[in-house]
Write a structure and sequence with these properties.
Length: 218
């Protein structure tokens, strides 16, 4: 049991005696899509998803590691999770733009683990986030809900992110579009996008981009 200013936490430690991490790797270990594995051997989403899940209940994860000295992950889970509706709502309140409008974000990705990780990261940043599995679902959702920013994966079955961007630009020209991709794109492919983000994406950068574009939309 760990006592902190914010309350009481149960600390769970997981330690290995492996090669450890460089400071540069340790700094990015919780970023979505970041991995040191060879291409095709990992998504880089395991730790970012775990971090977001712990954060949702008011906890946190910490990483201590040094080259040649192994790695330790510490999970701090609150002993008591506040259930009062007013307090819970305040903790999860969406972050408004400068004019008081709550920023709404659509995340379109056909890979469940990727979509959920991005939704978790943005939700933890105080944004209202909805996920869509493909372009067809995204086009149906935007008819019912007004969004400020949409994050589109480039490669999806059926209509890809580039074609989806063209459709959204025609039907919702005020919607700010962000392409999230693991590869290079041509200049003719990004004409409808306000921003292109290359995987791995830093959580802080992702939030900064979405919030900035959301403010521009309002």
């Amino acid at each position: 049991l760990v006592l902190r200013d914010q309350g009481d936490f149960v600390r769970i430690r997981v330690t290995d005696d492996g090669p450890g991490m460089t400071p540069e790797v340790r700094e990015r270990v919780f970023d979505p899509f970041f991995t040191t594995k060879a291409p095709g051997r990992g998504t880089g989403l395991g730790l970012s998803t775990a971090y977001a899940a712990i954060a949702r209940v008011g906890g946190r994860m910490e990483c201590q590691s040094k080259v040649g000295g192994g790695t330790t992950f510490s999970l701090f889970v609150p002993v008591h999770v506040e259930t009062d509706d007013a307090v819970s709502s305040a903790r999860a309140a969406p972050r408004p733009s400068s004019n008081g409008h709550e920023l709404r974000v659509l995340v379109v990705d056909d890979e469940d683990i990727v979509r959920r990780a991005l939704v978790s990261v943005l939700s933890q940043g105080g944004l209202q986030v909805v996920g869509a599995r493909d372009a067809a679902e995204a086009l149906e959702i935007v008819q019912r809900i007004e969004f400020d920013v949409a994050l589109l994966d480039r490669t999806m079955p059926g209509m890809d992110g580039i074609r989806l961007a063209a459709e959204l630009h025609k039907s919702h020209p005020e919607l700010r579009l962000v392409l999230v991709t693991g590869g290079e794109v041509g200049s003719h492919e990004v004409m409808h996008f306000e921003q292109v983000m290359t995987k791995p994406v830093r959580s802080a950068n992702l939030l900064e981009v979405v919030q900035r574009l959301g403010r521009k939309a309002n």
